[in-house]
Amino acid sequence: MTPVPPHLGILGGGQLAQMLSLAALPLGARVTVLEPDAQAPARLCAAHLHAPYTDRAGLEALAACDAVTLEFENVPGEALSALEGRVPVRPGRALLERSKHRAREKQALQAAGARTAPFVAIETGADLDGALGQVGGRGLLKTSELGYDGKGQARVSDEDGLRAAWQQMGRVPCVLEGLIDFEREVSLAVARGPGGRVAFGPLIENVHRDGILRTSVCLEGDPHEAQAREIAGRVTAAWDLEGLMTLEFFQLADGELLVNEVAPRVHNSGHLTQDGGGVSQFEAQVRAVLGLPLADWRPLLPCAMVNIIGVKDQEADWAGIDALAGTHLHLYHKGWRAGRKLGHVNLVAPDAATLRERLARLERLIP
Amino acid sequence: MTPVPPHLGILGGGQLAQMLSLAALPLGARVTVLEPDAQAPARLCAAHLHAPYTDRAGLEALAACDAVTLEFENVPGEALSALEGRVPVRPGRALLERSKHRAREKQALQAAGARTAPFVAIETGADLDGALGQVGGRGLLKTSELGYDGKGQARVSDEDGLRAAWQQMGRVPCVLEGLIDFEREVSLAVARGPGGRVAFGPLIENVHRDGILRTSVCLEGDPHEAQAREIAGRVTAAWDLEGLMTLEFFQLADGELLVNEVAPRVHNSGHLTQDGGGVSQFEAQVRAVLGLPLADWRPLLPCAMVNIIGVKDQEADWAGIDALAGTHLHLYHKGWRAGRKLGHVNLVAPDAATLRERLARLERLIP
Questions:
Q1: B293–A319 C-beta distance less than 8 A
Q2: Positions of E strands within B136-256
Q3: Which pLDDT value is given to residue B224?
Q4: How far is the C-alpha of B153 from the C-alpha of B202, rounded, in Å?
Q5: Do A287 and B322 touch (CB under 8 A)?
Q6: Would you call B47 an interface residue with chain A, using a CB distance cutoff of 8 Å?
Q7: N or C: which end of chain A has fewer CB atoms below 10 A?
Q8: What is the pLDDT of residues A286-321, one digit of tens each?
Q9: Where does this protein hold ATP (chains A, B) (predicted)?
Q10: Under 8 Å between Cβ of B201 and B299
């Protein structure tokens, strides 16, 4: 029907793949996801290959797509090898190898000219000697791989605590990050097409609770957006991104932005772009991966998002949420589990003051 | 996961059912459509019962849903009988029997206090005598049932032409409508929950080409919105609507609105609500049918829509459409056919002047 590559493959079938599929469908693209979970949220709006990420037949099916993207960075290298050279995988292996490994990621960020918190890569016990001093005496020990939402992290403030924490993490490769005193946490995503054309998303302010994102807010005219775009543009060019990448920043008291983490994909903090009157982060990733034109995609309206985390039916005022002006409910069709992301509520308003006032009411409706 | 009735049934699986399903999913609802076409657009994001609308097993499956709605008014009465009393069908049979029959519809509109064009119901040849005179000498002969997008219509300006046209239509029940000189065509949709709570959509200006909607525009502060809401509110209350209803109006030179047609469902003219920063007509119908709270749902941004009708790949500048700021492509995954609605492009802008300017450029990109 259009020159759009009609068939998009996605590694992973969770809520991010679900929302990528919901965005891809109206663009004329069919979507196939490879996902071992039988109850994967994406199954409701995409063809679901119910198999491990390394399943030969599943990977053959993805290799037959016009392009393949992903919803998580920890894709087995084996899966990438099976696809490489047969179908464009966006983002590609080199970028993923970097962003799935905290130490390599920080080294590559610094090489690209982006500032990060001070850190020491911990490979062996010897690396622990004096490491705390190098990062300022207080730090966060994080496993180099597979950590997310605050999992696989420990706060340490002395040598013994550091050694005990590393012991407890099974002496796996880690990074020790210096603890940063920051004013706020912000994020920004950038989509980059195969041709290298860059399209920026908005600067978003994020508030975490127990290490998990709780609330995001996007207002026009944030004075730090230009700096975030400059850093994001430099990193994505140096890393030759194809697809979409989200950067999380610490904003220091002096206004400088340090890169905290990078996700080579849509990110929870960008969900508010679904309902702000612009192109969503999901459509932006799909367009970049399929090589479709895309201009900067900041929302036209002030918008916000509140996560629904481990909330049981009776705990939230669902009718109240629907009744509140400007709300957009997004549920993932996942079963309840403590601390599990089950959905989010986007909020829009004609102006920033109204958004703030509605957001305060919305936050009272969601535990 | 929420108290939302989780399972919505839809009679029909075309693009309207597809977009209803895309709107229902994030609300936490599963969707099942009953649709005889194997290639139905809704199959991509809903469970597809591939069977005739009167299929016993298919209707049993719909009867097991929490609520049933529809994407077209010509549902066989047999199907409605099989569902009645077993599952809420919204809108219900009485309203559908009215809105699927032009003569009954106009009588019911007038009974509800809404003005229409003058008309004469043609049941037998005798009804033709002097009918043209009663509607002002020039008229449109329309079949009472199954006409849409200008099909089943003939312009007549004399007795012989009228008789010939009726002959050609197979002497089926028809209405002869007086030709109206109107300033413009507008539409407005209203959602009404089981409790009778009404939520209005925006007033939309529509431009047709060859009897098919080509372009819709929605700007804030239309001076005729209040009148349209007043009429829509009166009709939906009198007809005891449950679900969503769209009214199409002729606006006369003196500003008065005559009701042209009524659709008991989402309507092509309301597609622009998908991307205007508010609740879409599709979400509005789903919320009303599932009994979820809903406030008025006019877009927060100036927005417009251009239909993609019988356009072949090479005939439209797809890259140009994606590259134009504020565009949102919506393709239905339907094969090409002359005059077939294959998709639409929504357009948003921060202000009305920018919208007009972008719309002029967009219309040049779509034949």
A1: yes
A2: 139-143, 153-156, 174-178, 184-192, 198-200, 204-209, 212-218, 243-251
A3: 97
A4: 29
A5: yes
A6: no
A7: C
A8: 999 999 999 999 999 999 999 999 998 778 898 899
A9: 102, 142, 147-153, 177-180, 185, 208, 260-261
A10: no
Does the beta carbon of B26 lie under 8 angstroms from any beta carbon of chain A?
Answer: yes
Smallest Cα–Cα separation from A6: which of A221, A334, A331, A286? A286
Mean pLDDT of chain A: 94
- Poorest-pLDDT segment among A133-147, A349-363, B190-204: A133-147
Residues 6+ apart with CB under 8 A from A209: none
Ligand-binding site membership of A148 (annotated): yes
Cα separation of A17 and A332, whole Å?
10
Q: How far apart are CA A23 and CA A31, in angstroms?
A: 10
| Residue found under tokens 């220091």 | A252
Token readout for A143 is 């496993």
Task: Kindly state the tokens that stand for A125.
Answer: 């016990």
A-chain residues within 8 Å CB-CB of B200?
A: none
Q: Do domains A7-89 and A118-178 have the same CATH topology?
A: no
Distance CA B176, CA B174 (A): 7
| Mean pLDDT within A154-158 | 93
Chain B residues in contact with A3 by the CB 8 A cut-off are 313, 318-319
Q: Specify the pLDDT at position B316.
A: 86
Check whether domain B7-89 has CATH 3.40.50.620, yes or no: no
In the numeric block, which tokens belong to residue A277? 């009157």
Q: Output the six-digit token pair for B107.
A: 């009588």
Report CA-CA distances (Å) from A352 to A273, A347, B295: 15, 11, 20
Q: Is B201 annotated as a binding residue?
A: no
pLDDT category at B74 given cuts 50, 70, 90 is confident
A221: Cβ–Cβ under 8 A, 6 or more apart, which residues?
none
B152 annotated as ligand-binding: yes
Domains of chain A by residue range: 7-89, 118-178, 184-365
- Any CB–CB contact under 8 A between B331 and chain A? yes
Residue A6: its pLDDT value, please? 85
Asked if A7 and A30 count as a contact pair (C-beta separation under 8 A), the reply is: yes
This prediction's pTM? 0.95
Question: Within 13 Å and on the Cβ side, how many CA atoms surround A135?
Answer: 29
The two structure tokens encoding residue A142:
């994080």
pLDDT of residue A314: 79
pLDDT, tens digit (0-9, with 9 covering 90-100), for A39-68:
999 999 999 999 999 999 999 999 999 999
Helix (H, G, I), strand (E, B) or coil at A39: coil
* B318 contact residues in A (CB cutoff 8 A): 2-4
Cα torsion angle, B152, B157, B158, B160, sign: negative
Give the CATH number of domain A118-178; options: 3.40.50.300, 3.30.1490.20, 1.10.10.10, 2.60.40.1470.
3.30.1490.20
Which residue is it, tokens 């663009």?
A27
DSSP string for residues in A160-199: HHHHHHHHHTTT--EEEEEP---SEEEEEEEEE-TT--EE
At B324-347, the pLDDT tens digits run: 999 999 999 998 999 999 999 999
Q: Which CATH architecture has domain B184-365?
A: 2-Layer Sandwich (3.30)
**Average pLDDT of the segment spanning B310-318:** 86
Q: Token match 């804030």: residue?
A: B220
What value does the mean pLDDT take over residues B74-95? 94
**Chain-chain contact of B329 with A295 (C-beta, under 8 angstroms):** no
